[in-house]
Amino acid sequence: MQNLPPASSIDRTDDPATYDARDLIRNGIQAHIVLDGQTYTLRITRTGKLILTK
User: Fold this and answer.
1) What are the distances in angstroms from CA 8 to CA 12, 14, 22, 36, 43?
2) Could you report the per-residue pLDDT of 17-41, keeping only the tens digit for each?
3) H, E, C per residue of 8-21
4) Which residues contact residue 12 at a Cβ distance below 8 angstroms, ignoring those fewer than 6 apart?
């Protein structure tokens, strides 16, 4: 997992960052996303939809 700066130190802009979900989900199945110590799972379904679960 990458070491990212704390959210409080990230510059805020009007333009949100854009990511291709397939870049985040490198194994083609799922990725884990951590926010404030909570881990979430991002998954691509067989029909190409995204699901984010806690």
Assistant:
1) 9, 16, 27, 11, 27
2) 999 999 999 888 899 999 999 999 9
3) HHCCCCCCCCCCCH
4) none
Percent of the chain with pLDDT over 70: 76
Total residues found in the chain within this entry: 54
| Joined tokens for residue 13 | 């802009």
> Which amino acid is present at 12?
R
pLDDT at 2: 59
Q: Rounded to whole angstroms, how far apart are CA atoms 31 and 24?
A: 6
Q: pTM score > 0.90 for this model?
A: no
Token pair listed for 27: 């194994």
Instruction: Give me 7's structure tokens.
Output: 């959210």
